[in-house]
Amino acid sequence: MKKLLPLIFCILVFQTLNAQVNFTDSNLPIVVINTNTQTIIDTAKITCDMGIISNGIGMRNYTTDPFNNFIGFIGIEIRGSTSQQYPKKSYGFETRTPAGLALNVPLLGMPAENDWILYGAYPDKSLMRNEITYHLFSLMDAYSPRFVYCELVIDGQYMGVYSLMERIKIDHNRVNIAKLDSNDLAGDSLTGGYIIKIDKPTGSSALSWTSPYQFNVKYLYHDPQDNELNPIQAQYIQDYVTAFEDTVYGPNFSDTAGGFRRYINTGTFIDFFLMEELGRTVDGYRSSSFMYKDKDSKGGKLSCGPMWDFNLSYGNADYCAAYDTTGWQYNFESICPGFTLEPPAWWPRLLQDTLYTRELKCRWNYLRQTILSTTSINSWIDSVALHLNESQQRNFTEWPILGQYVNWNYFVGNSYQEEIDYLKWWFQARSTWMDANLPGTCPMITVGNSELKTENSKLEIYPNPASTEIRLQFTSKEHFETTVYDLVGKPVLSTKDKNIINISELANGIYFLKTAQGTKLFTNKFIKQ
User: Before 193, cis peptide (omega within 30)?
Assistant: First the structure.
């Protein structure tokens, strides 16, 4: 390998110097690929050389710099389904040893793995609809794909702004659930872990099953892939999902003990629903919709997520009312009947449960006060637009589509700034409509002691969401008592003079916490997941 690296380095540097665009340096990392005169295709990975230049935050990266983040071999292919119609391609690649085996390496500060994606936004001229979705979901849930913006050169050709991002898979640093081995065929070992997705039949899996309740809802095996699964394992996860569907469509679906909550982590379904509706994603719910299940001994319920494929979201599609800031995407079939794929009918079914909608509304209110506030979202968009200010100019020189319609733009801005302004406007308009129209009522819980007075400042809780314990940012020499209430106002946990509270025995959901000290009362909410 050491003997090959100088040769790879020389070839890659030569390729960059012959780029068609006058591309010499960037504030973003630079990724350089040499195909050795091969053609990248979408049916099989070809072995290529790759180098990455990344001199650190605030430092310039020059095409003449040494490859200091990665230099070596990759297997690469074109990825995507409908997105392959665009001239700017996206790629999936695997980092490899000289012998062609998968090689786990950290890239651009992301944890070591071997499965990666180079995503090149094309119809999304803001260059950030996927990225803001992954960013927001990473603040809401256990895992969301990490990404780093870069500029890409292939065989001397400047390709534009890309995101080097993680592919969704089972891994300690990605979807952190149990790995399923081929001999895990019975007992607890059979029950996890699985990643499946609702998608079109061409969505990377040759083997799928159809919902017994909807012919146009297809479940695909993602990880392990269909060819890695034993038939017993494939049947197990199918039976589990079907049991959930049987229950959610059954007469006692909302029963807190025997209903749908037996099968799903409701908090993850709520977060997934809120992100799909916030984005009004035209493909929402019916494709690229991931779910995963861990072993029963590790929780074992079905979770929704991570989020994926939002390039035609946030007002960026001109069909099926996806551009409208009003209305619900889960009603897609009534808006746009006759499509090959449709959202599962269990989304509106869940909204018939008043406890579920109460949790939904409380979660939305909490998020709107924090990471989904208009101020917070606008700040992130502006900071990323500034980060991309110089690179987006090169991108749209190579791909001159500003001011031009690209399938399936609803809004066509004449400049990058107009695209950014539209994205911010859409976020605000959609959020405001959801504020007023999201079903459910989030109650204000009272302790029932008229002598207690609520302080203006809330008690800080971390982590939030949490799974096993929460910590209170509360320091006092006086005695204090903390009580945890569920959404119907029932006390479920009480402690005295403790800053660390064990919540592992609580069911997943939203809770109110009140800490009383003398005549003072401190309050906040937290999510158990």
Answer: yes
Residue 198's nearest CA partner among 142, 250, 272 is 272
| Residue range(s) in the chain whose domain bears CATH number 2.60.40.1930 | 453-528
Helix, coil or strand: residue 514: strand
Token couple for 10: 């020389």
Determine the Cα–Cα distance for residues 252 and 88; give it in Å rounded to an integer. 50
Task: Give the residues across from 77 on adjacent strands.
Answer: 92
Task: Render the burial of 115-154: b for 16+ CB within 10 Å, e for the rest.
Answer: bbbbbbbbbbbbbbbbbbbbbbbbebbbbbbbbbbbbbbb
Instruction: Copy the structure tokens of residue 373.
Output: 């506030």
CA nearest neighbour of 394 among 101, 161, 182: 161
Specify the amino acid at residue 269: F
Tokens 């603040």 belong to residue: 139
Q: How wide is the angle at C-alpha 270 spanned by C-alphas 118 and 249, nearest 5°?
A: 115
Instruction: Give the number of other Cβ atoms within 10 Å of residue 16's Cβ.
Output: 22
Tokens of 187: 């007992």
Please name every residue paired with 79 in a beta bridge, in sequence order, or none if there are none.
Answer: 90
Predicted local confidence at residue 317, as pLDDT: 97
Partners of 95 in the β-ladder: 74
How many helices (H) does the chain have, and how many strands (E)?
Answer: 11, 24
* pTM > 0.90: no
Q: What pLDDT, on a 0 to 100 scale, did the predictor assign at position 449? A: 39
Q: At the topology level of CATH, where does 453-528 sit?
A: Immunoglobulin-like (2.60.40)
Residues 193 and 198: their CA atoms lie apart, in Å, by: 17
Helices (H), 259-311: 266-279
Cα separation, 246 vs 259, whole angstroms: 10
**pLDDT tens track for 69-112:** 999 999 999 998 778 899 999 999 999 999 999 999 999 999 99
Output the DSSP codes for 384-406. HHHHTHHHHHHHHHHS--TTS--
